């Protein structure tokens, strides 16, 4: 069971989590394995911690320390509301110690005006460490047999700080050593998502939104019956609710559809979440912690649904890179050379289209775009166009519904389309268009299809 930031935002939200866990725990057949609980940082805390890294980098030690104190106070206030007596004392002491150690480290970084990616991870990991401690204490206070576990002792990753990749074998070994004995004793492990450590024991993180991924990783290692993602919406919706008014819940999705939607911007799931679930064929359910009685979205290997369409997704603020070469395009090896540049700068490409003399790709992460353009310029003309959006129509067997494409184009009407692609998987039809038209395009498509 993974609870996201808004599901643990404050004492009321955490009380809802306690009730959800209790209901699930008490409704399980006696003797069956208890749930494992994974939590995100409290809502907005990761943003605050990232702000702290920026202040430290600018040498603003005092402001960084003031911000850490604010965050500490917020955590302590929640711990005091949810626990009593010695349990409060223990929680407050642990939080004070954790933040004091962090403040010391951040002070040093501010003096040197240097925050390495590993330092960044050390700072942001404190959000999940703190929230998971409080949730574990709140469970115990309500007589739920919780055991707090430092997730960094279980999840092992590579050293790609800020976007680390899990070492599944090492993690599953650790999960068998630390988590399985706890559940074996009929106790409930509670641990932070998103955070991990490298094989050398250095704190790392999986990247923004990574708690979903942590939950799926632990779920796959422990071969659980279901991976539950508890969030602030009723499930996967037919479109991003921040972009389209009143989208509907999608009751069922296939693993492939869910991956595709997450990859193309449905923030409710981290894009890598489905991978571990697929390896063990574990169903994933998305549920609303404010409306726990609602059925949510069930994600499984295959679905029986009347409509070919599952949902729309939208990824905002991407950059289109046009690479043109009259000289070399048809020569073999050109594409390899081109994509090697993106690989060298560790930049993922989302959409690719080609014409006779050019290749167009979209990138989301523009950190190395300048260097990428320079390297490509050695053998091609390069043009970058920022502020674009990817809009995708996702569903199984879209190829069996040829009318979908026509209907999409007609409903988009006069919105200029920069790139158009239908994936070989036949599970998505994708349009790249100006970001300022994204909301309009999504709304038109949503009206046409849902
Ligand atoms: P959590 O803190 O629980 O991980 P997130 O903010 O990461 O929650 O993800 C939930 C949010 O994802 C929703 O509040 C919603 O705004 C956004 N979202 C974007 N696309 C979709 C979609 N297709 N279905 C549901 N939610 C979506
Ligand atoms: N707290 C982290 C973030 O805000 C991870 C997560 O919420 O999944 O990105
Ligand atoms: Mg999330």
Strand order of the largest sheet: 3-5-2-1-8-10-11-9
Q: Which percent range fits the helix content?
A: 40-55%
Strand percentage lies at: 15-25%
Oligomer: single chain
What is the chain-wise order of helices and strands? Answer: EHEHHHHEEHEEEHEEHHEEEHEEHEHEEH
Spatial extent as radius of gyration: 23 Å
Query: Mean of the pLDDT scores?
Result: 95
Distance between the termini: 30 Å
Give structural notes.
- With 450 residues, the protein is α/β, with parallel strands linked by helices.
- Helix content is 42%, strand content 20%.
- The chain has helices at residues 11-27, 45-57, 61-82, 85-112, 117-141, 168-184, 211-222, 255-263, 274-280, 334-344, 369-376, 403-412, 438-449, and strands at residues 2-3, 37-39, 146-149, 156-157, 188-192, 195-198, 203-205, 227-231, 252-254, 284-288, 297-300, 311-324, 349-354, 358-363, 381-394, 419-422, 428-434.
- It has an eight-stranded mixed beta sheet, with helices on both faces.
- Helix 2 (45-57) packs parallel to helix 4 (85-112), helix 2 runs antiparallel to helix 5 and helix 7 runs parallel beside helix 9.
- The longest helix has 28 residues, at 85-112.
- The radius of gyration is 23 Å and the shape is globular.
- Magnesium ion (MG) is lined by residues 4, 209, 212.
Question: Layout of helices and strands, plus pairs?
Answer:
Layout: E1 2-3, H1 11-27, E2 37-39, H2 45-57, H3 61-82, H4 85-112, H5 117-141, E3 146-149, E4 156-157, H6 168-184, E5 188-192, E6 195-198, E7 203-205, H7 211-222, E8 227-231, E9 252-254, H8 255-263, H9 274-280, E10 284-288, E11 297-300, E12 311-324, H10 334-344, E13 349-354, E14 358-363, H11 369-376, E15 381-394, H12 403-412, E16 419-422, E17 428-434, H13 438-449
Parallel strand pairs: 1-2, 1-8, 2-5, 3-5, 4-6, 8-10, 9-11
Antiparallel strand pairs: 6-7, 10-11, 12-14, 12-15, 13-14, 15-17, 16-17
This protein binds adenosine-5'-diphosphate, aspartic acid (ASP) and magnesium ion.
Adenosine-5'-diphosphate binds at residues 4-7, 40, 209, 231-233, 236-237, 239-242, 266-268, 311.
